[in-house]
Task: inverse folding
């Protein structure tokens, strides 16, 4: 079940002020953290797909805070180097999924200001404009209507801003839980007169923008499959082709080797041990999931199953404190093993 962000925020605040987060940190903090983001947007922009959007002011606030704490912000290459050291020095790494053009126009200037390196994971389909980005379709559908109906999921009231964001979260969570709902969702989006390709075209990096990003000394380009499919549901040969083909595409466009990979969706239903093996076999040095957790020295043996922590639009001192202390993993594992793997 998806925990509403307001509940999560309350849990984080309570954990912060009571000192619980600090106590849990002894076990769950790890030696580093890899942050996961998608699109960076203007502070006053409204987006139904809020789970994929971080206001530029929030990104800047997080960077300022980490710099004030003297936490090293490092590349993924440096993450692997640190993990091979006997006592890894603490670090944070930043990653952005899906190849949004705003990673160049809005995120890069802020990352430059704080001299913070970052990785952008790019699916081929975003650049080629043929990605099945159903999430863009869902957002456009919700934006245009006060009430929508989805076979198998019932109806959603989305008359105001909060309702639109709630509806997006609910549909996104439902699909992530059951990808069998996708054909009906695609049909409903098409029936509502919404075309995905123009939405992708408006938001995605162009090939030239991708090259510009790739040339920047702070930027690493990483793989994110060809079509952004749920790898775990695909035959092994398809999963391999998706990762290898995307890697080759990015290397051809940028003229640089691509060593790092991110699994689309990244949760337990979308990638597992098989995907980690394939990712390694096609030549990636690391691969990240969206399983929440800190990075521990033990991850040197699980470089293709690195957990990440999402930066959300309403990040504050308490949520960041708790995330740095590994609270997400403590909750997610029900106080189990601190080291998130596949
Ligand atoms: Zn993605």
Result:
């Amino acid at each position: 079940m998806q925990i509403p962000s307001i509940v999560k925020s309350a849990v984080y605040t309570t954990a912060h002020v009571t000192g619980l987060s600090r106590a849990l940190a002894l076990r769950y903090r790890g030696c580093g953290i890899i942050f996961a983001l998608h699109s960076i947007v203007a502070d006053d922009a409204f987006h139904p797909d809020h789970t994929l959007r971080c206001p530029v002011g929030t990104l800047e606030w997080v960077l300022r805070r980490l710099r004030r704490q003297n936490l090293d912000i490092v590349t993924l290459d440096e993450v692997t180097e640190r993990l091979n050291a006997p006592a890894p020095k603490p670090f944070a790494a930043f990653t952005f999924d899906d190849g949004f053009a705003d990673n160049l126009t809005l995120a890069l200037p802020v990352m430059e200001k704080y001299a913070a390196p970052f990785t952008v994971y790019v699916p081929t389909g975003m650049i080629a404009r043929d990605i099945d980005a159903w999430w863009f379709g869902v957002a456009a559908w919700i934006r245009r209507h006060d009430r929508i109906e989805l076979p198998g999921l019932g109806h959603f009231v989305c008359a105001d801003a909060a309702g639109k964001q709630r509806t997006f979260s609910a549909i996104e969570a439902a699909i992530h839980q059951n990808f069998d709902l996708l054909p009906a969702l695609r049909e409903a989006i098409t029936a509502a007169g919404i075309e995905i390709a123009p939405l992708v075209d408006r938001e995605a990096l162009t090939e030239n923008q991708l090259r510009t990003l790739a040339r920047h000394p702070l930027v690493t380009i990483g793989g994110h499959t060809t079509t952004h499919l749920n790898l775990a549901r695909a035959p092994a040969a398809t999963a391999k082709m998706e990762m290898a083909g995307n890697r080759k595409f990015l290397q051809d466009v940028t003229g640089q080797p691509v060593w790092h990979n991110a699994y689309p969706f990244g949760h337990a239903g979308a990638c597992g041990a098989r995907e980690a093996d394939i990712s390694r076999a096609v030549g990636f040095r690391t691969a990240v999931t969206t399983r929440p957790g800190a990075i521990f020295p033990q991850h040197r043996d699980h470089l293709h199953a690195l957990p990440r922590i999402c930066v959300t639009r309403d990040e504050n001192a308490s949520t960041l404190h708790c995330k740095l202390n590994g609270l997400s993993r403590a909750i997610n594992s029900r106080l189990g093993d601190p080291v998130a793997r596949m």
